[in-house]
Amino acid sequence: MDSKKRWINKKLIVFVILIILLLLLNFYETLLRRAGDFLAPEKIEEADVVIIESCELIREKAIKTGIDFILKGKARALTVVYQHSPEEKIFGRPNDYPQFLITKLKTMGLNKEEILVIEVPKEHPITFIEAKIVLSQLAQKGIKKAVLIAEGFHTRRSFWAYTKVGEKLGVKIFPYPLFNKFKKDLWWKDRQGIREFFAESVKFFYYLFYGYVPIESLWKI
Fold first, then answer.
1. Which is it for strands 145-151 and 172-178: parallel, antiparallel or unpaired?
2. Contact at 8 Å (CB) between 108 and 98?
3. Degrees, nearest 5: CA angle 132-105-158
4. This prediction's pTM
5. CB atoms within 10 A of CB 29
C-alpha cells in the first residue's frame, strides 16, 4: 500500500512539474518583460527640471529626449551630469567640457538659463554620491520635482538612490529609462540586453543590501 502511495505521489509531482513547465513556456515572455519593467520603471509627471544621469560621455539621444520634455512643457530646464576622474582622462574630451556642453545645448535651442552642467566624481558608490551632489545643488535652486533620464536597466537603482536623497531635500523624482543598445521589450533576445539585465540586477541588490536604496524599492515603482 505504501509503495502504491509513493508511486501516486511521484506521478503527482511529475504532473505538477509538467504543468509549471508548460506555464513557463506559454508565459515566459510575459515574465521576462515584467522583469525588464521592474528594473526600468517609468513614471512621468510635469517637473521643474530634467536630469540626464551621469556618464563619461553624454549620449545625443539623452540630450534630445531631455530637450523634448522641455519643448512639450513637461519641464523648464535641463541638468546634464557627467563623470570626471583625474586618473582616467577621456581621449578627445575637451578640458572645458562644461562650457563645451553649454555651447552645444544653446545651438540646439536652449537658453543659458535653462542649462545646468554638474560634474561628479567617479567614486564608490557612484550613483548614490552623484545623487547627493546633484540634488543638493538643485534643492538650493528651489527645485521640487525632477525627471531623471537614466540608461536602461540602471534606472531602478538610480531612481531609488535619487529618491532616497531627494526625500531629505524635498525633491521628488520621476524615472524615465532610455534604451540605446537594445529593445526593452525584447531584451532577452539580445546579448547586450542579457548582460545588462543581470549586471544591473546584481548591482541593485548590492545597493539594497548596503542601504543605498530603501527596502520599499522592491515593490514600489
1. parallel
2. no
3. 30
4. 0.87
5. 13
What span, in angstroms and rounded, lies between the C-alpha atoms of 158 and 174?
11
- What residues does each domain of the chain span? 40-218
CATH architecture for residues 40-218 = 3-Layer(aba) Sandwich (3.40)
Dihedral angle sign, alpha carbons of residues 213, 214, 217, 221: negative
Q: Provide the pLDDT confidence category of residue 208 given band limits of 50, 70 and 90.
A: very high
What is the spatial order of strands in the sheet that 145-151 belongs to? 115-121, 77-84, 49-55, 145-151, 172-178
Check whether 69 has a pLDDT greater than 90: yes
Cis peptide preceding 125, ω within 30 of 0: yes
pLDDT value of position 106: 93
Which residue shows C-alpha cell 520634455? 69
Instruction: Report the first-to-last Cα separation within the chain, whole angstroms.
Output: 53
Q: Phi first, then psi: give them for residue 82, nearest 5 degrees.
A: -135, 150
